[in-house]
Write a structure and sequence with these properties.
The chain has eight helices and 15 strands. The protein has helices spanning about 5-25, 45-60, 90-95, 165-175, 190-195, 210-215, 215-220, 250-265; strands at about 35, 40, 65, 70-75, 80-85, 100-105, 110-120, 125-130, 135-140, 140, 155-160, 180-185, 200-205, 225-230, 245.
Length: about 260
């Protein structure tokens, strides 16, 4: 059994340390390296994850860790921490402010706590789900999604055009973009904080690894929204690479109907 207060304190400690590392490098980094999947990685990515892992091994030595840069440890444990040290490395590289650190605590493969941290804007989103008192906050203030918005009036964020989509994925994005009122390319995970605050209504993405999405679920769900994969299944270690998030169950149901119809064609 975890202690929610202790986990919240640890999430803040981890986010503080991640932010300190990143701000040493932000707008002052050497050229990036490129991994086997052609995605960039910087010294800030590596040092951030190393710092987070060091604190986890000090405070939660018996837990497992899944990280983007330094691999996995003890994934068979009941509690596993999932780390994306810099979500939005491309944005970080060009001096942007939409990058975040994502850290989630999963219990038996299901995220129960997560943080989305943006150190330049000093915005920190923390969420808890599946516990006694589910709550989503930004800098300590409780969050609530926007409700009562029909899909045709919704603000939608979608995976960026720099990705190569399958024909099925192309159909999904075309169908959903054709319905919502405003369409934007996703600001990586920062968009999910905007959804939890009530500024964005729908987010549809694909090609997301586990470390890209585990921290998002507690923040979105505890704010009154809902996030699933494209089959309508809750986000978990086995839920695949797609996400569909919305500010309410009704809006999510309407979006999911369009997504599944496009997938079935």
């Amino acid at each position: 059994m975890i202690n929610k207060q202790e986990i919240e304190g640890l999430l803040n400690l981890l986010a503080d340390e991640a932010g300190r590392v990143q701000m040493r490098h932000w707008r002052n980094i050497p050229p990036a390296e490129f991994k086997s999947d052609h995605s960039p990685v910087t010294i800030a990515d590596k040092e951030t994850e190393s710092a987070i892992r060091a604190l986890l091994k000090k405070h939660r030595p018996d837990d497992g860790i899944l990280g983007e840069e330094w691999g996995n440890e003890n994934l068979d444990k009941e509690y596993v921490w999932v780390i994306d040290p810099i979500d939005g490395t491309k944005g970080f590289m060009v001096g942007g402010v939409m990058f975040t650190t994502l850290i989630a605590l999963c219990q038996n493969g299901v995220p129960i706590a997560g943080v989305i941290n943006q150190p330049v804007l000093k915005e920190r989103y923390i969420g808890f789900q599946g516990l006694k008192d589910d709550i989503s906050t930004m800098n300590g203030k409780a969050l609530s999604t926007r409700t009562g918005i029909p899909l045709e009036r919704a603000i939608g964020f979608f995976s960026g055009t720099d990705l190569v989509f399958t024909p099925e994925q192309e159909r999904v994005f075309k169908a959903l973009k054709g319905v919502v009122r405003i369409k934007r390319s996703c600001y990586d995970s920062y968009a999910y904080g905007l959804l939890a605050m009530g500024f964005v209504d729908v987010i549809c993405e694909t090609q997301m690894a586990q470390y890209d999405k585990m921290a998002l679920a507690p923040v979105v769900n505890a704010a009154g929204g809902i996030i699933t994969n494209w089959r309508g299944e809750p986000i978990s270690m086995t839920s695949g690479t797609e996400t569909l998030a919305a500010g309410s169950k009704e809006l999510h149901a309407a979006a999911l109907k369009i997504v599944q119809s496009a997938m079935d064609k």
